[in-house]
Amino acid sequence: MANYVLGINSYLHDSSAALMKDGKVVFATEEERLSRLKKDARFPVLSIRAALEHAGIGVRDLDAVAFGWNKAAVTPLHTLTASVTGKLPRSRSYIGHSLMTIGRELRSGNGERNLKRAFGTEAARRVFHIDHHASHAWSTYGLCGWDEALVVVMDGRGATQATTLYHARGEELKPIRVLKYPNSLGSFYEAFTDILGFERQNDEWKVMGLAAYGTPDRDLSEAIQVTDDGYQVNTRLLMGTTWGDLTEMRKQYGPRRNPEVLITDADRNLAASAQQALEKAVFALVKWGVKETGCRKLCLAGGVAMNSKANGRLLASGLVDDVFVQPAATDDGVAIGAAIAAHGRIGKAIPRYRLDEVYFGPEFSDDEIGETLQTYKLPFVRSTDVERVTADLLAKGKIVGWFQGRMEFGPRALGNRSILADPRRAEMKDRVNECVKFREGWRPFAPSCTIEAAPDYFEGCREAPFMILTYDVLPDAGEKIPAVTHDDNTARVQTVDRNVNPRYWRLINEFGAITGTPVIMNTSFNLRGEPIVCSPKDAIRTFYSSGLDYLVLGEFIVAKQQMWE
């Protein structure tokens, strides 16, 4: 009889559910993809229902349900106590937020009640609450395929933790260092996200992208000190980062940029300075961890691990021999980590294997796609060779919405829910940003390339399936693919294996046969402020709401203009 374990993340942000069968992930999705509410933090009823339907099981078939938060460790009590005792400023906003968050996090302990309410009492027969950082750690170590690793979890905060280092061996995960909230790298980066006029806990990656255009000329030592064993954040200066009181930070580093005002060189340089400070802190943590454990294989998770620039520089630094980053490194991936950990609680071997793909979401057959197109009375053609046809369209300068197979889990579009364009055309960056995504023109795009071609374009790149590491673009290669080469001559690469995603590999290969460049510009199939599309209906709406030229859903091709112009 098959063994099923369900992992859940909810009430914080990025609510999600993941289902494991016999120790392997078989389904995982974020609630926002199904509810169409960006950053949906509600109990993931839709995701759980979709997981059960995918597996063809009911709640009685679940051997365990695991939440990626330990309800016994209520973070705000820690922060409230720190404020009251004088370790942090006694600000009304700080204390008020702590009290508010106590209620929210206590609600997270009501997962069982919500589970029962939505799915019946049988769903909550065996429920476990796994420490948040441990869930992050298992989500990366359990999927790295190694028998031993240094594991570093960095985020805004877990329970009382902000950063936790583990020495992982076999089925043992041993904490070796804990930096407690509010001594938080995530909060540090959040503060500069706010000052630069972006949305905290959402737009941190914009700071990373903007940093490539600037020079790190600001001294941030007042905000963060890098030490031999890690870092120390000035918590008094950063107090209130999460909830809006950044008075002291703004006095030190300037007022918040009006989001409607054009970005200046000073803004670019501040972003570069924040990125540099973050990287130095991460390097110090890893260096200490390697010295302490003797382990040169590194696993990363937590929101800070989404900083692909820092990840890439770690890999190239020589501090470690290899880096594995769980591709859903933010809280959505906690659902997987909690499910992995729960196996040990029910007497099963803790799953450990090498993750090679994240196509874990819903899938729609060609029959279902065809019915949707007919429902909306849309003109289309059906092709048995959509890869060649699409490659030809891209080579002619068309922008294509590409909808195939199962939806990706995590924040990156990896060739199943993607917007595609020709990377050889420098103007494509501006066209897609302005006419399709409706966002800032400086925002970068990523290249997808066949795994065979990666060493010809990106320095040291052999395998990078999750678009979570940056690599230097080789000399002269940047001239061939200007639309995906960032200003600092790096690229956030996705390598595509024909055995993992055959249709996407064939598309890139066909494009290479036509153009001589087996690289495609790839960005997520969504509009600004919206979740990545999930269903054919979502894709159609986004297609007609944007400057996309063509929409390819399965074997169907939809055009706004004459198909073969």
What does this structure look like?
The chain folds into 3 domains: 4-71 and 109-143 and 331-345, Nucleotidyltransferase, domain 5 (2-Layer Sandwich); 161-168 and 176-325, Nucleotidyltransferase, domain 5, CATH 3.30.420.40; 366-559, DHBP synthase, CATH 3.90.870.20. By secondary structure, the protein is of the alpha/beta class. It is 36% helix and 19% strand.
Concise description?
The protein contains 20 helices and 22 strands.
Properties at a glance:
5-stranded mixed sheet, DHBP synthase, 36% helix, 3 domains, single chain, alpha/beta, Nucleotidyltransferase, domain 5, 8-stranded mixed sheet, 565 residues, globular, 20 helices
Total of helices: 20
Number of domains: 3
At CATH's second level, what is the architecture of the largest domain?
Alpha-Beta Complex
- CATH classification class of the largest domain: Alpha Beta
> What is the β-strand count?
22
Oligomer: single chain
Structural class: alpha/beta
Amount of helix: 25-40%
| Distance from first to last alpha carbon | 56 Å
* Radius of gyration computed on alpha carbons: 23 Å
CATH topology (fold) name of the largest domain: DHBP synthase
Query: Numbering strands along the chain, what is their spatial order in the largest sheet?
Result: 13-22-21-14-15-20-16-19
Proportion of residues in extended strands: 15-25%
Low-confidence stretches: 89-94
The name of the CATH superfamily of the largest domain reads: Carbamoyltransferase, C-terminal domain
Query: Can you tell me the overall shape?
Result: globular
Largest sheet: 8 strands, mixed
Mean pLDDT over the residues: 91
